[in-house]
Write a structure and sequence with these properties.
Strand content: 25-35%
CATH superfamily: 2,3-Dihydroxybiphenyl 1,2-Dioxygenase, domain 1
Number of domains: 1
CATH architecture: Roll
Shape: globular
Number of helices: 5
Helix content: 10-25%
């Protein structure tokens, strides 16, 4: 059975205060806030979703903001240790200028550009320590035309995520045998795998050495999710995980997509997520992210939930 997976769907991380999170990702990086809802398992916490201009799978970076005093995490195995966006060729110069002038105000620092697999990579760190990369790529797409960043530099779909796991070889076997990835080279202990069926968000990098042990908390990635086109494809992917001896959950309704979760042998939490129904299922596509949307089970508690959540100002 060939894998129905078509690349990355989303990355979900834990952050500090919600307004600080919005200032960095909607303000400094110019991403579109496409959904403000709550953690379905903890409605006292926001779940914020950022995406490209059209809110396409393969561009969703989502956060559980734990607020002031959140326990800091430590980036390391087993985690996704960096999330990378694809940017147009030549965008690094603008991003260097922007990060130098606006980054300190948002509490963001950054490194000098480097080259990786023939591509220019710029690494920045959010105030909570989360690592985000901007990689110049010929197939960059989805920048938000109505956003704050000029189209020639705007961030859209992901480029890749980088994994450090306790068992890198076993992790790569899941990626190739169940999720349809193919090895496309190695550089300085970093193995690049590419999904040949993906039209965006195609790459996963796996580090050969686990490195320092991580700890879940603010500034770390909670899980990464892979795309499938529909529910039937999700069941096919789940069967492939079962055939490798893993223990995926049954499908779970997350309102905007349906999810199957599985911890791979190296310790990273993987999710299989469907493209539909999408974020326009409960609010107009041209007004995404402008108000708090609650799943039906929490709607009767709206007044109490809104009273507990801090107000948010989204830069225009």
């Amino acid at each position: 059975m060939s894998s129905p997976v078509t690349g990355l769907h989303h990355v979900t991380a834990i952050s500090g205060p919600a307004q600080q999170n919005v200032d960095v990702y909607a303000g400094l990086l110019g991403l579109r806030l496409v959904k403000r809802t709550v953690n379905f398992d903890d409605p006292g916490t926001y779940h914020l979703y950022y995406a490209d201009g059209e809110a396409r799978p393969g561009s969703f970076l989502t956060f559980f903001p734990w607020g002031e005093g959140a326990m800091p995490g430590r980036i390391g195995a087993p985690q996704a240790v960096a999330t990378a966006y694809a940017a147009p060729i030549g965008a690094s110069e603008m991003w260097l200028d922007r990060l130098a002038s606006h980054g300190p105000l948002a509490g963001v620092d950054f490194d000098a550009p480097e080259e990786r697999f023939g591509e220019t990579v710029l690494t920045l760190r959010a105030p909570d320590g989360l690592a985000v990369e901007i990689i110049e790529a010929a197939d960059a797409s989805g920048g938000w035309e109505a956003g704050r960043i000029p189209p020639e530099a705007a961030l859209g779909a992901f480029h890749s995520v980088t994994l450090r796991t306790a068992r890198p070889e076993a992790t790569m076997r899941v990626l190739t045998d169940a999720l349809g990835y193919e090895a496309h080279g190695e550089e300085e202990g970093r193995v690049r795998l590419v999904n040949p069926q993906a039209d965006r968000a195609r790459c996963i990098d796996v580090m050969r050495q686990p490195g320092e042990a991580g700890r879940m908390g603010a500034g770390t990635v909670h899980h990464i999710a892979f795309r499938v086109p529909d529910d039937d494809a999700e069941l096919e992917a789940r069967e492939l995980l079962l055939q490798l001896g893993l223990q995926p959950t049954p499908p779970i309704d997350r309102q905007y997509f349906h999810s199957v979760y599985c911890r791979e042998p190296g310790g990273v939490l993987f999710e299989i997520a469907t493209d539909p129904p999408g974020f326009a299922t409960d609010e107009p596509a041209d007004a995404l992210g402008q108000r708090l949307m609650l799943p039906p089970q929490y709607e009767p508690q709206r007044e109490a939930i809104e009273a507990r959540l801090p107000p948010l100002h989204v830069p225009s």
